Every structure is written in C-alpha cells, then in structure tokens.
C-alpha cells in the first residue's frame, strides 16, 4: 500500500515537525533515550544537566545530522563539544577524548544506521 501526501491543502507557512518529534525519543522516556542518557552519565554525570534530559536528547539528535553529513571525525568531535556546551560549562573535560566518547554515545544510541 502506497501512501500519498496531498499537498494541495498545505500553505508555505505550515509548520513541519522537527526531527526530535518524529525520532525515536518522543513521549515518555524511551529505552533509547535512557540508554543514551546513561551513556552520557558514564562519561561524566555533569554533561546532562539535572532536569534537562530532553535538551540532551535534542542535542544528540542534532548531532546525528552532523554525523550523517560530515565524515571528518575531528570536526565531528569539535561540533559535539560545542553542541553540548562542554567548553563553556565543563572546561575541565573539554578535550578530544570526552568529545569522542559523547560522539560515540550519540552514534551508537541515537543514529546507529549512519
């Protein structure tokens, strides 16, 4: 069965759902979300701010977009450290090891297919 989207009723200004809304981490905390947040906590529990799990997952999903389009690991690590605000919030762990570990946690848990 093929689905067809009737675009005749869509206006240019109609909202499009962001990836986080259609990704694997919607509604209640899913097993995917929990595994990702546990991976971040294993790296350093300060990475995911208390009460901001959704923000961490959103940043991870944003990083998935970078993983899909960028193959340069050094650049991806730099983007990861920036995206998770490690340099400004946690300068003591602002290094390629931490960035690489966060990047790997994102890739493994949130977007393993690319």
The low-confidence parts are 1-27
Strand runs, count: 0
Q: Can you write the helix and strand succession as a string? A: HHHHHH
Distance between the termini: 27 Å
**What is the number of helices?**
6
Mean pLDDT, all residues: 82
The value of Rg in angstroms is 16 Å
Strand content: under 5%
Roughly how much helix do the residues carry, as a percent range? Answer: 55-70%
Secondary structure class reads: mainly alpha
Shape: globular
Largest beta-sheet characterization: none
General description of the model:
- The protein is mainly alpha-helical and 114 residues long.
- 56% of the residues lie in helices and 0% in strands.
- It is built from six helices and no strands.
- The protein has helices spanning 19-22, 31-43, 53-69, 73-83, 86-89, 96-110.
- The longest helix is centred in the middle third of the chain and has 17 residues, at 53-69.
- The chain is globular, with a radius of gyration of 16 Å.
- The model is unreliable at 1-27 (pLDDT under 50).
Care to give the gist of this entry?
By secondary structure, this protein is mostly helical. It has six helices and no strands. The longest helix has 17 residues.
Sum up the structure in keywords.
mainly alpha; 114 residues
Give the helices and strands, then pairings.
Elements: H1 19-22, H2 31-43, H3 53-69, H4 73-83, H5 86-89, H6 96-110
Helix pairs in contact: 2-6, 3-4, 3-6, 4-6
């Amino acid at each position: 069965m093929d689905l067809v989207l009737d675009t005749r009723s869509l206006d240019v200004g109609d909202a499009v759902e962001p990836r986080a809304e259609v990704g694997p981490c919607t509604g209640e905390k899913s097993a995917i979300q929990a595994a990702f947040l546990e991976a971040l906590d294993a790296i350093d529990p300060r990475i995911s701010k208390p009460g901001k799990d959704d923000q961490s997952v959103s940043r991870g999903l944003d990083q998935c977009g970078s993983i899909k389009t960028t193959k340069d690991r050094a650049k991806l690590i730099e983007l990861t450290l920036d995206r998770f605000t490690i340099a400004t919030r946690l300068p003591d762990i602002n290094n390629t090891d931490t960035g690489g570990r966060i990047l790997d946690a994102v890739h493994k848990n949130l977007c393993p297919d690319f």
